[in-house]
UniProtKB/TrEMBL annotation:
Species for this entry: Danaus plexippus plexippus
The protein's name: cardiolipin synthase (CMP-forming)
A Gene Ontology biological process term: cardiolipin biosynthetic process
Keyword DNA-binding appears in the UniProt entry: no
Compartments where located: Mitochondrion inner membrane
InterPro entries: CDP-alcohol_PTase-I, CDP-OH_P_trans, CDP-OH_PTrfase_TM_dom
Catalysis: reaction(s): a CDP-1,2-diacyl-sn-glycerol + a 1,2-diacyl-sn-glycero-3-phospho-(1'-sn-glycerol) = a cardiolipin + CMP + H(+)
Similarity field: Belongs to the CDP-alcohol phosphatidyltransferase class-I family.
GO cellular component: a single term: mitochondrial inner membrane
Gene3D superfamilies (UniProt xref): 1.20.120.1760
Predominant place of localization: mitochondrion
Amino acid sequence: MRFCTLKLLNQFKTIRIRNNQIVQSSRFTVQNDLTRRQIDKIPIKLSSIVCFYSSDSKKHFLEIEKKAESIKNVFEQKKVQIKDTEQKIRQKGEELVKDLRHQKEVTGQILKLKKDHLVKDILETKAKVREKIEGVVERENIFTIPNVLCVARIAMSPYLGYVILQDNYNLALGLLVFAGFTDLLDGYIARNWEGQSSKMGSFLDPMADKVLIATLFISLTWQELIPLYLTLLIVARDAALVAAGFVIRYISLPPPKTLSRYFDATHATAQLAPTFISKLNTAVQLLLVGTTLASPVFGYVDHPALQALCGITAASTIVSAISYLVSKDTYKVLKKKL
């Protein structure tokens, strides 16, 4: 319709110019004869055609505006829907983040509670184990006067050996007398003073005697005052007894058997009970080293009595070793009284 109206306008423009006697050639070609005749015969006013065109265009434009308005409305509706969707998505994201944070806090609290509960259970179990251990193992005070005297004898033994090797027999004899006095004193205090007797002392006292005697025998043998065979016999016997003491400690220690508990001197687990022949052998050994150490001072080195005393010492050493093997009461495992 719009295309036809434009053609008619061009035709009427040509007709008007013809009426003003201006000859112009037509810019268009008439589609059929009937249309040309009607145009030549019927005088048509431009205003009516323009009005017709204007009303038709206005109607067309109104339709376009309506369509544009409807499209705009649809677009606005879609835009509103998109905003609503974005807002819903944003709200969902915020809710999801909030839920994740809440779950993280709850999980952290749960883990913290479980950790605290686990630590509490471990501490309670540790306390119960300690109570059970304390119920099996007896603790005692090891810092007693007899124990200090025993440790002093052990510490003095290397110096006594050094003095003998320096041929200072007078000082060595004095130190030996002092060591014998401390041996008698610690036994007297442990037997007569309350709280001075300890299970640890039952290990320390014989160990101090053995360390002292072994040091004296080795030093005097080096100075060729005591036969080598006798020293080897005594040292071997004492080393076996010391090793047996460590084995008894391990056997008597209740589980858990750890190094810290094994070397904890306050945990008394066993008590030694030396045999009579062992005590007699210790006295004979001390008599031998004492008289041998005094021989250079008083001038009776290689005396026959010393040779006889060496034989008696060897025999008593062998018998005492056998007594430890056959006797069943040489040590006693301790258990706390309930």
